[in-house]
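S.,

As promised, the aspartic acid run. Input:
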Amino acid sequence: MKVFKFGGASIKDAEGFRNVLSILKKFSGQEIVLVVSALGKTTNALEEVVHSYFERNGNANQLLNEVREKHFNLLSKLIPDSSHKVYEELNNTFIEVDWILEDEPSESFDYIYDQIVSIGEMVSTKMLAAFLNESGMKTKWRDVRDFIRTDNTYREGKVDWEITEKKIQAQLVPASKNGLVLTQGFIGGTSENFSTTLGREGSDYTAAVIAYCAGAESVTIWKDVPGVLNADPRYFSDAKKIDHLSFKETIEMTFYGATVIHPKTIKPLQNKNIPLHVKSFLNAEASGTVIDSDMNDDARTPVLVLKPEQILISVSPKDFSFMAEEQLAKIFGMMAKHRVKFNMMQNAAISFSFCADDAKERVNPFLEELSNEYKVLLNEGLELLTIRHYDEQTVQTQTQRREILLEQKTRNTIQLVVRRF
Ligand code: ADP
Ligand code: ASP
Ligand code: MG
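Predicted complex:
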């Protein structure tokens, strides 16, 4: 069995759906499990609905209606016959959210977030399954919540590997034996049948979970880039494709923030030695990037990774005592509690500095608790630039228009917390 994953960019419009069909036709007759994300930027739009609902600003219904309209508009281009049962299925899924919005928010933000945001994948996959079937490509739609079991850490569901593997072996593997199976990325289900999400951009990870549990032969993630490049083309104009990478090098790249692959994707594939192909959905014939256990020709040219929206937090005790282990343990405890993701840290005699993702809804409550006990200094609007296999010239070019606030070097990697000017 092969696992294919198509992200939001590949199905953002009718042309995208037709393109996915044409790619799948090239593989007809093969055992394929298809993992699919929400259309385009739907997840962001649904996040807005949730925020608006919790802010009680009266816009939630309107925002949801916009999402609904977009889906039905696109559906009418794919399947003009509005008596097709997919219309009712979509309608029912959106009505579930209408019901949530009718009442005042009484459950936790993260729980409601998952119940609302997860419908993006439910509706996109219903649309794609209907479209493929109407186009003559026999496709079985499966609800991923029936076989990817997570705990109830909403917005960051942790996979229960044992149950998930059993369910995938019992349900998904047999289904894939005759024809295409289509399911949702990004979401899972709890033992009580609530929806969870696996973290933003988590559909790549879903593909890896399924591949691992099914013992798949390979995973292909179809992207809007020719493969993994040595830098994000949005930030660096002369990025070049890397033909081959090892699991190890890819884990490093994604850990530092190369968003082309979700960081949790690689480990399960590495454990079972399942190769990962990153290919362009705009040029399906091109070779893309192959990622496997072979470390022989890992890139020796510099690889650039830029993480925007960083905050540098410097903490010192109010009484000028030293920053000792006890204090650090306390600070790390607070970070874990508020799920603040830190990316780099440096300790000095009376201060401890670290750079973290500036996700306000987590960072603000964290900072509030932190300032009760410590003196806190902030630098906002920063970037974290990581250069793997760095050389002097690359570092010089990249720091020309950047003020460096914090720097860390190992033999292979340099990391710089910078402000652009
Ligand atoms: P998906 O459609 O699966 O959600 P993403 O948009 O998450 O795809 O990932 C593809 C994007 O990742 C590219 O458009 C590119 O801007 C970005 N990206 C970041 N780092 C890299 C890299 N090193 N190589 C290629 N693309 C990268
Ligand atoms: N739709 C989800 C997101 O945008 C998951 C994914 O696309 O991977 O975060
Ligand atoms: Mg994505």
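The chain has a mean pLDDT of 96. The two ends are 50 Å apart (CA to CA).

- D.
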